[in-house]
Amino acid sequence: MLDSQLLKIAEDFGSPVYVYDAEKIEFQYHRLTNAFKNVKKLKLNYAVKALSNISILKLFKSLGSGIDTVSIQEVQLGLAAGFSPDQIIFTPNGVSLLEIEQAAKLGVKINIDNLSILEQFGTKHPNIPVCIRINPHVMAGGNANISVGHIDSKFGISIHQIPHILRIVENTKMHINGIHMHTGSDILDIEVFLYASEILFETAKQFKGLDFIDFGSGFKVPYKAGDIETNIEELGEKLTARFNEFCKEYGKDLTLAFEPGKFLVSESGSFLTHVNAVKQTTSTVFAQVDSGFNHLIRPMLYGSHHDIVNISNPNGRERFYTVVGYICETDTFGNNRRINEITEGDVLCFRNAGAYCFSMASNYNSRFKPAEVLWHNNEAKLIRKRETFEDILKNQVEVDFSPKKKVAVSK
């Protein structure tokens, strides 16, 4: 969508506000399905945690997607969005057996990554099929906080513990219907991903009743001009050939599953803020905006880059600014960025704000969470209202601290 349209949205809906371009989401979805068009059975399960607005989920349902969930609340949200239980896979980490049982009771697919929970679940519910999440001990991804397939990761059951898994399956007679891995986000080298896939294929040979193999996701999107991104087309060509070959060896056409989140929604998102003040210090020019890491924590949490553009002054001369928020704590969005000259009241647009942005927003400093808008069919549609002060107080319970009346004691 055009920057002029974003400016109109900032004017109509106020700021800060998240805006998502439905056409970009659809483009990314079809790009991924086209890359694997030669797989007989392909299933994309959108990772809800990336952006969980119910209207976004309904958009994915209309495209034919399933969903990947990591909490019982996300499962319930998916059901509320109209997904049938068989279109939902539950892939939690560190949750209780009770939560997994709650999800199983709702009829969704179950993915377990813990030997203890696997044994407990298999003992109590041997007739409920289970997918197993494997840790391939392959380092992929960018920041350590989003690389989840390495040997020290809390995610998945180690490939060195396959004999333990087989023993549990034999003892409980449970049915393993899928094998899963997720190496991490921001995959740069598809050869590393393909190497991890070979480990998954070798593991799959140990289980005779599989219906699907889930390769996770973590495909990298470009964050700035000239940035590296995962070559989805090359990966599709190479992994498709290897997957089809494996299915012949296995003697069954399995489903190839992915659980993309960032790849599908990141580039669709724009985060719009107004400039409250331009502050010159002895060494820095700060552009202070009406938001902070309460709304967009990624740059502070793990150093993510978001291009910042002054859409109010696209032709202005470039100057260097450090863009910061209004939180009473350091909340720097970008240091010494070349941005068209900024004046107070201008609208700054943060690009690539569709994934893990609003979904990690908070009420820190008792600030309201922002509104969300979907640009669909050349129309801006409000899909989440901006919070109000009533929302801040909604679940708080006040205690009465008024002095208690003294009871007169008769003599």
Overall tally of domains: 2
Uncertain ranges:
141-150
Task: Classify the helix fraction into a percent range.
Answer: 25-40%
Shape: globular
Radius of gyration: 24 Å
CATH overall fold name of the largest domain? TIM Barrel
The secondary structure category is alpha/beta
Strand fraction equals: 15-25%
What's the CATH architecture name of the largest domain?
Alpha-Beta Barrel
Q: What CATH first level of the largest domain would be assigned?
A: Alpha Beta
| Helical run tally | 12
- Largest sheet entry: 9 strands, mixed
CA(first)-CA(last) distance:
83 Å
The CATH homology group name of the largest domain: Alanine racemase
Could you spell the SSE succession in H and E letters?
A: HEHEHEHEHEHEEHEHEHEHEEHEEEEEEH
Average pLDDT figure: 94
The beta-strand count equals: 18
Protein name: Diaminopimelate decarboxylase
Cofactor: pyridoxal 5'-phosphate
Family: Belongs to the Orn/Lys/Arg decarboxylase class-II family. LysA subfamily.
GO molecular function: diaminopimelate decarboxylase activity; pyridoxal phosphate binding
What does this structure look like?
- This protein has 411 residues and is an alpha/beta fold.
- It has two domains: 52-260, TIM Barrel, CATH 3.20.20.10; 266-387, Beta Barrel (Lyase, Ornithine Decarboxylase, Chain A, domain 1), CATH 2.40.37.
- It contains twelve helices and 18 strands.
- The strands form two sheets. Strands 1, 11, 12, 13, 14, 15, 16, 17 and 18 form a nine-stranded mixed sheet that branches.
- β3 (66-69), α4 (72-80) and β4 (88-90) form a beta-alpha-beta unit.
- α8 runs parallel beside α9.
- The longest helix is centred in the middle third of the chain and has 19 residues, at 232-250.
- It is globular and about 65 Å long.
- The N and C termini lie far apart (83 Å).
